[in-house]
Design brief:
Largest sheet of chain B: 7 strands, mixed
Order of helices and strands of chain A: HHHHHEHEHEHEHEEEEEHHEEHEHEH
Distance between the termini of chain B: 73 Å
Number of domains of chain B: 2
Strand order of the largest sheet of chain A: 1-7-6-5-4-2-3
Strand content of chain A: 5-15%
CATH class of the largest domain in chain B: Alpha Beta
Number of strands of chain B: 13
Oligomer: heterodimer
Radius of gyration of chain A: 25 Å
Radius of gyration of chain B: 27 Å
Order of helices and strands of chain B: HHHHHEHEHEHEHEEHEHEEHEEHEEHHH
CATH topology of the largest domain in chain B: Aspartate Aminotransferase, domain 2
Helix content of chain B: 25-40%
Helix content of chain A: 25-40%
Largest sheet of chain A: 7 strands, mixed
CATH architecture of the largest domain in chain B: 3-Layer(aba) Sandwich
Structural class of chain A: alpha/beta
Strand content of chain B: 5-15%
CATH topology of the largest domain in chain A: Aspartate Aminotransferase, domain 2
Structural class of chain B: alpha/beta
Largest interface: A-B, 210 and 205 residues
Shape of chain B: globular
């Protein structure tokens, strides 16, 4: 076994030092009925690296990668280019194979990158403070809702009709487990403004998304005002972090908490995970925040250094009174995010966002020009919804035959909401003019 | 011609004894000084070359960012140096033994990394048509089969994002099962041993339960008398959350009886599987009466810890809870086609719902399955045995200089109290002195049931020579601690940073960089 350094001689001599006859002695506390006499049946024995690599490569070959042709799927995860440098950095042993920085004297590398990450996320979202990341955008959204309930001591959470349904589901689950009431507004392509009308004196928070799941960008300033007038908080959600380079960020709209997905910066698609949840809030709410926080301090020599801080909010100190049960963040994905953001810089991010927007504009023009295709999203960043005269599932299957992965059928996300003819379409900087032409040509044939 | 026989001096000069040398650059030899990104970059600098936008008319409808982020960028060579220099300030398992008890810092095979980066796994979208991701669904199904087989449990939820998220998954299933029984409002009490990891009580509360703490006995196990007295009134019992092997590194001797008592009381048995690595291949939790258990893929199955995540916490279920597991899950049709069940309807109509966007930590699934295939059923059994052997070896080598918390053999980690240390020397001093010896400290002050706890988990991927070197170092530190060596209080002396002032960090939190005042004025 290539991963096990002990030799038979080692084992024998170690057993002698310990005073045990065999490894069985260590398992003497296991009830007789639960002791396995032999290795577990039904599983293969160990294999060498070559055999395993062959097997896994075969499995991978059964999947169609996003880079292998025209690809227009978004709705919460986005195909962006990740610089080679980012992948090199996150594979450095010192980052890859270390633990949560509990011993700051020998974890300043991780801690300084987290401090830089927090600063970047705060600036991107235009919020006061950000934490060291969450599992992903959907869990960040759920944690934001229960945090708002803690802050306001109220029990009602209102979700917009444009919130990603997976985010809505994760939020509803956590809220209801804690005895909160969740109100889901009617699914709507341009319905974020409805939040302003639904907030009342019992509302802990309203949760709006921009760009929303249909790609619609919205200024939530009016929602923020209505919420604040009633003593409620605005949670502003995003699933496409690149949009923050161009679209009004949560902080500029008066959001109290920003929660979103950071996958688009530095992280690959990975079939949905691991991703990196971004979480930011106003300074006065920081002690109610979930998750890890990194803060600046000095060491015994007076030199600047960083530590995990405000841990009196957390489970390992507060146990049943913690703000969340979260133990890890999404460290390595946060490193991918921060190193990509560092390579981009503010100017680079803005340019990247412009390229995304322009690709989507050109796609919208190409598809919108087709007879029968209806453009449903009024204002968008890099994705939008279209209606086709043919059932979306059939359209996507026929596009697939033409080599085009044409988007997500809305009915996959909203079953039973009469969206059988709606397709969610995304474009990014990876989308070429040829990709767009191929999509338009294939769709023209189909409808 | 005469040869110069003087040669270069080879003996150390008196100057070599100089205590500390401050440098102009702030660097110390190979350890390069590095400022914050915000002090070295500018918003105009970039390390990527992007095409120039065409200047098309915006379709944002005026919903446009007003103030630029102002975030600095770095060119690629600057960025590489920034992160490489920072990396040198981190300890890592690839550098040496990382004995953090209950965290399981074992070797991370690089084949796993390579496989996770195959485009067929890394570059597929969670919502692309299922016909185009059959290999991914097959992989999830196969990993699920391994997990079910290794635990002896009939069902597994793959979507939880980390161990604590898996705990949440398990407890939400218990909550749902109680609701289905019509007892959701009445069965609200969850028993949690006082030795439990903090996530256990925090999770129970997140699910709306009330925590009732159970005492530990003198042998580091659940105090059965205390448990039984708390079960005397059973009609409000939702269940128990119990770690096994427990946080003291011991197998819960009475685990079958505990399971039976809980079931008889009408509750469910949640087992925290953080320490599954001690028993994998040798004991199946399904044979112990467990109803739900999360598995940390980043512990038992070696996916990298990455400086604090991403984790992955698939959660196995007994028949009693299987129907309430979350969506999505993968099924295989009779014709061999894999299919995702994504909504609470049809075959998932009793599911408690969806915990997270998409399908779980695919990148971690690939790594874990690669690890499992590499070890096989035979190798995984050896993994558990070697992990336990290594921990017992450390315990045996140190027991005459340190104070084992409990008698007898341990499982995968050795637990010591601070009783051996002289007055005034604390666990933290011993931990920090280990840093000077070139090691990451052990887990300290956990579990809470042992005074000044030091929990050492070497894992199976350490050789005997490495263990001996570590034990020699810890033994010498322990002797100094026993003698009351005051220099321990100042450790570490040789790390990239000295002890950090955590009180100051918490009192007036500085959670992001802000421009110095002079710079702000200049900018305005």
């Amino acid at each position: 076994m290539r991963y096990l350094p002990l030799t038979c001689e080692d084992r024998a001599s170690m057993l002698a030092t310990i005073g045990a006859k065999s490894a069985d002695d260590f398992y003497a506390d296991v009830p007789q009925s639960a002791r396995l006499k032999t290795k577990i049946a039904g599983l293969p024995d160990h294999q060498g690296e070559l055999a395993v690599e062959r097997y896994m490569t075969k499995l991978a070959a059964k999947n169609r990668s996003a880079s292998s042709g025209p690809f227009f799927v978004g709705a919460g995860a986005y195909k962006h280019h990740v610089p080679a440098t980012v992948d090199m950095i996150i594979q450095r042993s010192e980052f890859l194979t270390t633990y949560t920085p509990y011993q700051p004297e020998i974890a300043q590398g991780t801690l300084q990158t987290l401090f830089e990450f927090q600063t970047q996320v705060a600036a991107l979202t235009a919020m006061d403070v950000a934490n060291a990341s969450m599992y992903d955008g959907s869990t960040a959204c759920a944690e934001a809702a229960v945090m708002a309930a803690r802050v306001t001591k109220r029990k009602k959470v209102i979700l917009s009709g444009g919130l990603h349904p997976h985010y809505a589901a994760a939020t509803r689950l956590l809220c209801e487990a804690q005895g909160l009431t969740v109100v889901q507004l009617t699914v709507a392509i341009d319905g974020e403004g409805e939040l302003a009308r639904s907030v009342d004196g019992e509302t802990a928070c309203v949760i709006g998304q921009s760009p929303n799941v249909f790609g619609t960008v919205s200024d939530l300033s009016g929602v923020a005002k209505s919420a604040h007038d009633k003593g409620a908080l605005l949670v502003s959600v995003f699933t496409e972090a690149v949009s923050l380079g161009l679209v009004t960020p949560p902080g500029e709209m008066g959001a109290d908490i920003a929660a979103g997905e950071g996958q688009s910066i530095g992280n690959g698609l990975n079939f949905g995970g691991p991703y990196v949840g971004l979480f930011a809030c106003r300074e006065k709410l920081v002690r109610q925040m979930p998750g890890r926080l990194c803060g600046e301090t000095v060491d015994a020599d007076g030199k600047r250094g960083f530590v995990l801080t405000l841990s009196t909010r957390e489970q390992h100190i507060r146990r049943d009174k913690a703000t969340s049960n979260i133990c890890t963040n999404s460290g390595l994905c946060a490193l991918a995010f921060t190193s990509h953001m560092t390579l981009l810089g503010g100017k680079g991010l803005k340019q990247l966002a412009e390229l995304n927007h322009e690709a989507a504009c050109e796609l919208a023009d190409a598809l919108g020009a087709l007879k029968g295709v209806e453009m449903l999203t009024p204002r968008f960043f890099n994705e939008f919804a279209i209606r086709t005269p043919v059932d979306a599932e059939a359209v996507l299957a026929m596009l697939d035959e033409a080599g085009v992965v044409g988007g997500v059928r809305a009915s996959r996300l909203f079953p039973g909401d009469h969206m059988g003819d709606v397709i969610l379409v995304a474009a990014t900087e990876c989308t070429t003019a040829e990709d767009i032409a191929a999509y338009a040509a294939a769709l023209k044939e189909i409808i | 011609m005469t040869m110069n026989t003087q040669g270069r001096p080879t003996a150390l000069s008196a100057a070599a004894a100089l205590p500390r040398l401050d440098t102009v650059s702030g660097s110390r030899g190979l350890l390069q000084h590095e400022d914050l990104l915000f002090e070295i970059g500018t918003p105009e600098t970039t390390g990527v070359d992007l095409p120039k936008p065409k200047g098309l008319k915006s379709r944002l409808g005026g919903v446009a960012r007003k103030v630029d982020t102002g975030l600095p960028g770095l060119s690629e060579p600057q960025a590489v140096r920034h992160y490489m220099r920072l990396s040198q300030r981190n300890y890592a398992i690839d550098l040496g033994l990382f004995p953090l008890g209950s965290c399981t810092m074992k070797h991370n095979p690089r084949l796993n990394e390579k496989m996770a980066r195959l485009p067929g796994f890394a570059d597929i979208h969670p919502l692309q048509p299922q016909a185009t991701v059959q290999g991914a669904l097959e992989l999830i199904d196969e990993l699920a089969t391994w997990l079910k087989t290794l635990t002896g449990m009939p069902s597994v939820a793959m979507s939880p994002k980390a161990g604590a998220h898996g705990e949440l998954c398990g407890m939400l299933a218990i909550r749902q099962a109680l609701i289905a029984r019509g007892e959701g409002g009445t069965r609200t009490r969850v028993m949690v041993p006082e030795s439990a990891h903090g996530t256990n009580p925090a999770t129970a509360v997140q699910c709306g339960f009330i925590v009732d703490e159970i005492k530990a006995n003198a042998r580091g196990r659940v105090d059965m008398d205390d448990l039984k007295s708390k079960l005397a009134r059973a009609d409000d019992i939702a269940g128990i959350m119990l770690t096994n092997p427990n946080t003291c590194g011991l197998f819960e001797t009475d685990i079958r009886e505990i399971a039976d008592l809980i079931h008889a009381a009408g509750g469910y048995f949640y087992c925290d599987g953080a320490n599954f690595n001690a028993i994998v291949g040798r004991v199946r939790p399904g044979d112990l009466g467990v109803d739900a258990m999360h598995i940390n893929l980043h512990k038992t199955f070696s996916t990298p810890h990455g400086g604090g995540g991403p984790g992955s916490g698939p959660t196995v279920f007994s028949e009693a809870l299987a129907a309430y597991a979350p969506v999505p899950f993968v099924t295989r049709d009779e014709d061999g086609i894999y299919r995702l069940v994504e909504h609470v309807e049809g075959e998932a109509s009793e599911s408690f719902g969806r915990m997270v966007a998409f399908h779980g930590q695919m990148g971690m699934f690939v790594r874990a399955l690669t690890y499992m295939l590499s070890h096989g059923a035979d190798g995984l059994k050896q993994v558990a045995e070697d992990a336990v052997l290594n921990a017992n070896y450390v315990q045996a080598r140190l027991r005459h200089v340190m104070t084992p918390a409990f008698d007898g053999f341990c499982m995968h980690e050795a637990l010591f109290s601070d009783a051996f240390a002289a007055d005034g020397i604390e666990t933290i001093d011993i931990a920090k002195a280990l840093i000077d010896e070139g090691y990451h400290p052990m887990t300290m002050y956990f579990p809470l049931v042992v005074h000044g706890a030091m929990l050492i988990e070497p894992t199976e991927t350490e050789s005997k020579a490495e263990l001996d070197r570590f034990c020699d170092a810890l033994e010498s530190v322990a002797r100094r601690a026993a003698q009351g060596d005051e220099t321990l209080k100042g450790a570490p002396y040789l790390a990239p940073a000295r002890r950090l002032d955590e009180t100051r960090a918490a009192r007036k939190p500085v959670l992001k960089w802000t421009a110095p005042v002079t710079q702000q004025v200049a900018a305005e």
